[in-house]
């Protein structure tokens, strides 16, 4: 598999874990799974999930970074990661939270981020 594709796949996987670490506990609490957990337990749970995120994020950046022979500059890696984060977050929110509504301003903000990716990849 090419370094470019490996980087993107690892970034997607890492962002799935990151989104669950940051927001999944809210869904778990709402469903009653972790509603009675003390805050420190929720933090430790989220930290454990975030460790899995780092297990994908760090290799993605090492493989993808042009300084290590990869195809992407630092800024390209960062902007790509932000767009992937937004896509994963929106999909997660639609699936996990009743009443989550994607509005025109959210779509406009997403379009601006895609524009940022385009600009970052211009030579």
From TrEMBL:
One Pfam family matching this protein: DMT_6
TM stretches of this protein: 7-25, 37-56, 77-97, 103-121
Domain of life of the source: Bacteria
UniProt keyword list: Membrane, Transmembrane, Transmembrane helix
InterPro entries associated with the record: DUF486
Descriptive protein name: DMT family protein
Species this chain originates from: Paramuribaculum intestinale
């Amino acid at each position: 598999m090419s370094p470019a594709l490996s980087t993107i796949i690892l970034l997607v996987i890492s962002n799935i874990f990151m989104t669950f670490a940051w927001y999944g506990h809210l869904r778990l609490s709402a469903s009653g799974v972790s509603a009675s957990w003390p805050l420190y337990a929720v933090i430790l749970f989220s930290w454990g999930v975030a460790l899995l995120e780092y297990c994908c994020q760090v290799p993605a950046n090492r493989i993808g970074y042009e300084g290590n022979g990869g195809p992407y500059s630092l800024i390209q890696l960062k902007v790509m990661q932000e767009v992937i984060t937004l896509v994963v977050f929106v999909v997660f929110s639609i699936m996990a939270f009743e009443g989550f509504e994607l509005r025109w301003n959210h779509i406009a903000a997403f379009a601006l981020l895609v524009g940022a990716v385009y600009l970052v990849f211009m030579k």
